[in-house]
Amino acid sequence: MTGHEIGVVRVVAVAGHATVYTLTVSGDHTFFVGAAAVLVHNTDPAAGSSCGANGANSTPNDRSAIDFMGRPTKSRANYRVIVPAEQDAKGVWRRTVAGINSQGNLEEVQEVFDTSKGQWVERGTTRGLRGGDFEGIARSYVEQDLGSNERYIPKGARQGGFDGVVVRFDENGEALVILQEYKDESGYLQIDIVTAITENIATNLDELEGRINASPAAFGMTRSQANAAIRAIKQRRLDVQFVIGPKTYLGPSGRKNSLLKTIQTAIRDKLGVTVPLEEPTLKVSQEFVTQQEDLAAAAQLDDVAGEGAP
Questions:
Q1: Is residue 25 part of a domain?
Q2: pTM of the full predicted structure?
Q3: Of 6, 46, 98, 158, whose CB has the highest number of CB atoms within 10 Å?
Q4: How many domains does the structure of the chain reveal?
Q5: What does residue 197 show for φ and ψ, rounded to 5 degrees?
Q6: Is 298 helix (H, G, I), strand (E, B) or coil?
Q7: Considering the chain, what percentage of its residues have pLDDT values greater than 70?
Q8: Above 50 in pLDDT, residue 258?
Q9: 101 within some domain
């Protein structure tokens, strides 16, 4: 060692198993490290423990959650790996960690490794490999079940707006416009995160009308269907639907102060009409979320492979 500082040029995450070792100081196991004299303690192996600083065994198959392939999942720095990381047939790295959550309960979490971030992320949640893009997962879920009399309009380019819109045509060619909100929250939804269909609904409807009028073919509509959709917007033939994640809830709809009742009131105040909320909830299944995350992980691995060796 020369004593000169060396700059780190880059850090590359490499998937794989590795043997790791825990440093144990002979004799006294309490000692000071560095100029700051940080007090460090190692448990005596003779006492029957081989735990390191993170409380994990030093054997290759029992690592702390921060010792293998980069940083821990957010808020899980103290979790331990209980099922070691392995690659599946698609090349996706998976593991299981466990620890005490913020409620004081023991929790097991399945994780996958996001190669684009060099980060473990929770498997089966929409804040995983899609980079928090639940809108993409929800859109796929909606589109797979569209009827022949329905057309889908995705979110526009500008910030804000409806997450998605389904236009449903009846046998007479008239339309119902269903405004969709895509939400993936842990627990019950709150009114302050649905402003697209409450506070900003009039502005968003104007934008939607303009998009349909400008390019109906982009949404699979004929000019006649586009005119019907625009009439529905102008005449306020609307409904609202929440497409929600597996762990998201709207709460009881019958209560006076329920979220759905509050939304109906907010829309009535803005537009002067009451939306029926006939099909208020479309819940994305856990199986579908996991499937989409696996596809995204495989695509990321293909991208990394295409870039060549670092």
A1: no
A2: 0.57
A3: 98
A4: 1
A5: -110, 5
A6: helix
A7: 60
A8: yes
A9: no
